[in-house]
């Protein structure tokens, strides 16, 4: 293989293939984190709903009705706290991905500019 071909291959690897591989790995990590967060949230919300349904099934008199109402209020409060935490988590994951992607794009642009100068 000639030196020119070898240099072209190295430049192609450095400017295109390597950054795309790095971006793909970052994107896969992002999607993995997002799916995991969504699955955890769905499980927590469904557990809350099932527990609340069971509480209402136990209502037989005024006292148990009052307990169910108190449980409903606590569940609503817990749900709002969980929702707030889940929203913050998803926002953080998205911001991290955006920052990493931006940094990679800047690095790739700089590499390409340096390669062109050579």
Please report the total strand number as a whole number.
0
> Radius of gyration, rounded?
26 Å
Largest sheet, if any? none
Low-confidence stretches: none
Quaternary structure? single chain
What pattern of helices and strands is seen along the backbone?
A: HH
Q: Indicate the mean pLDDT.
A: 91
- State the distance separating the first and last CA atoms: 20 Å
- What number of domains? 1
Q: Helical region count?
A: 2
Gross morphology: rod-shaped
Strand coverage percent: under 5%
- The SS-based structural class is mainly alpha
Helix proportion: over 70%
Explain this structure.
It is a single chain. The protein is built from two helices and no strands. By secondary structure, it is mostly helical. It has one domain (14-110). The model has no long low-confidence stretch (mean pLDDT 91).
Secondary structure topology:
Elements (H helix, E strand, L loop, with lengths): L2 H55 L4 H56 L1
Helix pairs in contact: 1-2
